[in-house]
Write a structure and sequence with these properties.
Blueprint: H1 5-22, E1 31-36, E2 41-47, E3 52-58, H2 65-70, H3 74-91, E4 98-100, H4 109-119
Parallel strand pairs: 1-4
Antiparallel strand pairs: 1-2, 2-3
Helix pairs in contact: 3-4
Length: 124
């Protein structure tokens, strides 16, 4: 039995809301939010207390274009995005974050972002 796209998206949003009830970003320990589309991946550091996005990186950033051309596949691009968000966090003197997988399974591109951020020094 094949589920239609709307049902799958609705289930992901329900999971996302369940996760968001439990985790919250602060200025000292922001939330590392992941969103993935079919072609791109977006990562943001969010301070939920002040309702602000501190910084963000995606595969659409112009400064990543030259590096993305050398990388094959979406998982390689996700690793690069994870590395870049960790570098930006260190520039802002942020060492710890709360990981928000956005209702997606911790698998594939979402896992690649998390592992690359950890490898670059962020603590979850």
């Amino acid at each position: 039995m094949q589920l239609n796209r709307k049902a799958v998206e609705f289930n992901r949003l329900r999971k996302r809301l369940r996760i968001r009830k439990k985790i919250m970003g602060t200025p000292e320990r922001p939330r590392l939010a992941v969103f993935r589309s079919s072609k791109n991946i977006y990562v943001q550091l969010v301070d939920d207390l002040h309702h602000k996005t501190l910084t963000g990186v995606s595969t659409l950033n112009p400064e990543l274009r030259s590096e993305l051309e050398k990388i094959e596949g979406k998982i390689g691009a996700a690793k690069l995005v994870g590395k870049k968000i960790a570098e930006k966090a260190k520039e802002m003197k942020i060492e710890q974050v709360v990981f928000d997988r956005g209702g997606y399974m911790y698998h594939g591109r979402v896992k690649a972002v998390a592992e690359a951020a950890r490898a670059s020094g962020l603590k979850f």
